[in-house]
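DM from R.C. (forwarded with permission)

"hey, sorry to bug you on a friday — could you get me a structure for this? deadline for the figure draft is monday and I only need the backbone to look sensible"
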Amino acid sequence: MAECTVPPKRGISPLTIALIFVIAVLAVIGAILSPLSGIFIPGLESIVDTLLNVATNLIYLIGGGIIIFGALAVTIRFIQCKIRDTYQPSCVTRFLSGYLTLSLEFFIGAEIIKTVVTRTYEEFTVLILVIISRGLFSLILYLERRWHGTADTE
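My reply, with the result:
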């Protein structure tokens, strides 16, 4: 049962601070250079569209990789727990839902980036529906982890 406990978070991670700093610097640079972009670099819009499409596809691949990694890790954990003691709870459903929630966050992030590239109202409508459905899936997984995350319920 001690395996199911997750240590509490303490403070803000240095990685979080670094990411916030990088995003803020890039936002300031983008705000300064955006009015001048058409003058210095003709065809910048097509370059940005291509970069956003590549970024979207990479984020989709990262989300899919998280699902694959999580499924393999949870399967290995389940087998190890059941080899030690068949009747001991393994807590794998909570860990799998954590990986699924994280991958859904990446998928939603990719969809949000995709909103910049959409050109028609129909594409935008489908995109909004996908974001809403993935958000609901993420909420359901979060509630499942919260309500059924103890070792007694597995």
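R.C.: lifesaver. The helical segments are 14-33, 37-40, 44-84, 92-117, 121-147.
me: no worries. Residues 115 and 123 are 9 Å apart (CA to CA).
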